[in-house]
């Protein structure tokens, strides 16, 4: 049962290509639409100047000053070690100190992953946290995990990714017995590299609804609800998908403006095209939750508009309200105990 309680979300207001404008506006929108209490972390004068543009409730948005900002192009580990007073680090400390339930940032992804691991830590039993994104298909959404937090993985890591992704699908997407597929180069168990072959065996031993390997052609087909892979492969899938959407939009725009008839056809089909674009728009889904850390962390695209920040805050609230981290820890510990008994 979901516990009804007040949720407070910290926002790294200096993170992203359009900070602090977009993070502040996104926070204002989330506060007004969802009634969420928010802590903006960043350079105080800059944040106050942005907030003055809006007539939001002052008691719903708090500002905590941060002297430093981790730039998008900075080396993540170097920035984490050197910038002790960065907005990202201070926001993570709010999670650790239980002053905030979740953290949203459109800043340096590598820095956020490192800071969450070091400052907040992983859940008991979790070997490595993972980033998950929603992949739209004809019938709804699939979860792709991991999309960049872990480049080099062991079978145990992917086994845990599958468990965490299944819980995400069950609790947030409300999918009963989500189907789990392992991304490989063929459907047969013998296909793939040594890692995927080992992961295949590991996933068969879990309580997940594992249906076997899936191929690249199945990613957008909706044949599974959770797609499991290492962060190297997952990040390639993510970046190819983003560029493909941009290319399709540009090609459609060019073709539809060639003649009077195509322009007329576009005018008649405008609503359909708007709906299509909305389904593929990452800002509708907010960002990628970092599953497996001892708190809620949502990583947004660096170019995120205010709407994406708003929706990421909503997702963070949903995760906190459903106590998703507690469920993940429980299931991971159960899986480890089952594996120990079967040895």
Share of helical residues: 40-55%
Provide the gyration radius in Å.
21 Å
CATH superfamily of the largest domain: Isopropylmalate Dehydrogenase
Measured by DSSP, the beta-strand proportion falls in: 15-25%
CATH topology of the largest domain: Isopropylmalate Dehydrogenase
What is the number of E strands?
Answer: 11
Q: In the CATH classification, which architecture of the largest domain applies?
A: 3-Layer(aba) Sandwich
Keyword list:
343 residues; alpha/beta; Isopropylmalate Dehydrogenase; 2 domains; 11-stranded mixed β-sheet; globular; acyltransferase; cytoplasm
What's the short version?
With 343 residues, the chain is α/β, with parallel strands linked by helices. The chain contains twelve helices and eleven strands.
Your description of this structure?
- The mean pLDDT is 88.
- Helix 6 crosses helix 12.
- This protein folds into two domains: 1-126 and 292-323, 3-Layer(aba) Sandwich (Isopropylmalate Dehydrogenase); 130-284, Isopropylmalate Dehydrogenase (3-Layer(aba) Sandwich).
- An eleven-stranded mixed β-sheet has the order 3-2-1-4-11-10-5-6-9-7-8, sandwiched between helices.
- It has helices spanning 21-34, 44-51, 76-82, 87-96, 109-120, 155-171, 194-204, 231-256, 260-268, 270-280, 306-321, 324-342, and strands at residues 8-12, 37-42, 61-65, 102-105, 130-137, 140-145, 179-183, 209-214, 226-228, 288-291, 296-299.
- The chain has twelve helices and eleven strands.
- It is α/β, with parallel strands linked by helices.
- GO terms for molecular function: phosphate:acyl-[acyl carrier protein] acyltransferase activity.
